[in-house]
Design brief:
8 helices; elongated; alpha+beta; four-stranded antiparallel β-sheet; single chain; 2 domains; Aminopeptidase; 28% helix; Alpha-Beta Plaits
């Protein structure tokens, strides 16, 4: 049985361990999780692909278990705390039914939920008919290059199914937008600021190109669970001095696109828009993450929906506008969904919090799902 008091205390303890990324160092929180799981009698392994960037993997194997394996995976790192907090970002303070602190929703509440669900199963000596794998990973906030990506690519993790603990409000995430991050570098020609006609202003060219990119709408087929594709200008820099014609300008694009859209075609359209206003430019593609979707009728969704109903709640199947790590599993042909106990619109914000009632109910749902899951 999920212990509410123990769960709250665990969430507070996790929040109080600083695991900001950047700079990135999960050693302290990984050590805490390692000790907690070992105390429950689990065999734990630590994997590091860079010093201090620790990943924790543990499993529950049963003698009578089938060969089926299920992975549940939250992440250990958080974004930086930043400023303008009413509550200490690493205090784990409780106020008005909420636990405050950096990572409370993303992702230490989910981390606590996973650990407490396992604690309950072990405490009650529940016999699962599959292998349960728990992976608390590093580096999720900056791309998972030191976490899930090498764990999957090196076949350290090779489950049959995956449930990523990184969502809000007990939602079941079955679809997710793709992501393109690119940097555009435009070259102009220097001149004195009093004689701008003698130069070619890269900032002017960038502004016109950006307007064209924003106006040149991407073609797509509407998706039932996701909003239309988006293009966001995240950063822009250019020029050396106010009285000079800028001979350089750089800006970064964040593009979110739907299942069925092709990243190469999107990049091709961006290049076409740039060519109209910038004779000399270079594009650096900083990252591409493919969109993802799985059937609402998949076994993972069915069992999780049943567990939610068993707790007297209504399942809510949704798409995700952002980017969780569920997309990493499609390259390995591992069915994956996301689920979580976080509180909506608080992740990455000042005074991030998690509702205690969400945390408790969501952990009971997770524990019920783990008890009942039998694979496809």
């Amino acid at each position: 049985m999920v212990n509410k008091k123990r769960l709250i205390k665990l969430t507070q303890e996790l929040i109080r361990i600083n695991s900001e990324n950047p700079p990135g160092n999960e050693y302290a929180i990984a050590r805490f999780v390692n000790g907690y799981l070992e105390h429950l009698g689990l065999k734990v392994k630590v994997y590091e692909f860079k010093k201090g960037r620790s990943n924790i993997i543990a499993s529950i194997k049963r003698k009578r278990a089938k060969k089926t394996s299920l992975l549940i995976s939250p992440h250990l790192d958080t974004v930086p705390a930043g400023k303008n907090w009413r509550f200490p970002p690493f205090g784990g303070n409780i106020s008005a039914g909420r636990i405050y602190g950096r990572g409370a929703s993303d992702c230490k509440g989910n981390l606590a939920a996973g650990i407490e669900a396992i604690h309950s199963l072990v405490e009650e000596r529940i016999e699962l008919n599959y292998e349960l794998i728990f992976a608390a990973t590093a580096d999720e906030e900056t791309g998972s290059d030191l976490g899930l990506i090498p764990l999957l690519n090196k076949n350290i993790l090779k489950p049959d199914y995956a449930l990523i603990l990184d969502a809000d409000e007990l939602n079941i995430i079955v679809a997710q937008k793709g992501l393109i991050h690119m940097k555009v570098k435009i070259q102009g020609k220097k001149a004195h600021g009093a004689y701008p006609w003698r130069g070619k202003n890269a900032i002017d060219m960038a502004l016109k190109a950006i307007t064209q990119i924003k106006n040149d709408k991407l073609k797509y087929v509407p998706h039932q669970l996701l909003r239309p594709p988006t293009i966001n200008i995240g950063t822009i820099h250019g020029g050396d001095k106010v009285n000079m014609v800028a001979d350089w300008c750089e800006f970064e694009l964040d593009i979110r696109f739907l299942p069925g859209m092709d990243a190469k075609n999107i990049i091709k359209r961006i290049k076409s828009s740039l060519k109209k206003y910038a004779p000399k430019f270079r594009i650096e593609t900083e990252g591409i993450q493919q969109p993802y979707e799985i059937s609402k009728d998949h076994a993972l969704v069915r069992y999780l929906s049943r567990a939610i109903k068993d707790c007297g709640l209504r399942p809510c199947i949704k798409g995700n506008e952002g980017a969780t790590t569920i997309t990493l599993f499609q390259q390995k042909r591992i069915p994956a969904i996301a689920y979580g106990v976080g509180s909506r619109n608080t992740a990455h914000a000042s005074d991030e919090y998690i509702k205690i009632e969400n945390l408790f109910r969501g952990t009971k749902v997770l524990e019920g799902f783990l008890r009942r899951f039998k694979g496809g």
